[in-house]
Write a sequence for this structure.
DNA sequence: TCATCATATCATTGATTTATGATATGATGA
DNA sequence: TCATCATATCATAAATCAATGATATGATGA
């Protein structure tokens, strides 16, 4: 059985992973992989709405995955630690071998096209 | 701007991370870190309900993060790849330095005790 | 000071996900 | 075959999350 402090640690770890676990946040992190960017550059790189980007950035910053630096009216974001990029790289490597499985993991995530209803 | 195939890849990666991004699933993965376990051993190790464990195991299996092997009426699960454990270890290392931030990342996740309302 | 730009915040709505309890399946030994 | 055990599946209710549009903040240059 898990004891309380383990549960807290697991929750924190899960929360950390959840930082990477949303396509919008992950594309922000990926955009920041090789260079720091202002918010508007991130908006442009990801194609997301500005308020959406800003919300996700706030989350990523609170979580310590990115850092912000204000310059005039611009705010530049960068990954706060090399291990953030390392985690993404490791996930990519793993994904290379299990992509089909992840793709088919529709248990909790059938997006729009659940069944085309023609083959029921 | 992201092009379509990038978006697919980002979605897959995010989905992979989401496999780790739930406390229940993560504690299952952690229980399997150093040894394979039957479903009932996982139930006991995590304290989760059996149907809940089974649901999460199904998800983890579909995603390729764990493998199952049936023996009699028991089904034994193990991590499918060393990199699954590596990802957890790397996250732990990162968390060691940013734990406070993750803890305070309440933007999307204030659980039960939002404000004790005494200090408003 | 004013208009404008870059970014942040907020409430709301819709979508997705999680836990639960009930039940089904399929293996085992009596 | 029957009762039992281990696991899986399913529907549903509850919780959580993400995107949006509107608006606020705070910096800049005219």
């Amino acid at each position: 059985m898990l004891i309380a402090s383990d549960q807290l640690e697991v929750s924190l770890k899960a929360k950390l992973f959840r930082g990477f676990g949303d396509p919008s946040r992950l594309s922000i992190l990926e955009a920041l992989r090789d260079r720091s960017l202002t918010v508007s550059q991130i908006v442009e790189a990801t194609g997301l709405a500005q308020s959406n980007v800003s919300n996700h950035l706030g989350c990523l910053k609170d979580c310590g995955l990115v850092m912000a630096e204000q310059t005039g009216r611009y705010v530049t974001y960068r990954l706060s630690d090399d291990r953030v990029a390392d985690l993404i790289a490791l996930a990519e490597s793993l994904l290379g071998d299990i992509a089909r499985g992840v793709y088919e993991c529709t248990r909790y995530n059938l997006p729009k096209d659940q069944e085309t209803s023609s083959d029921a």
Observations:
- Chain B touches chain A through 59 residues (CB under 8 Å).
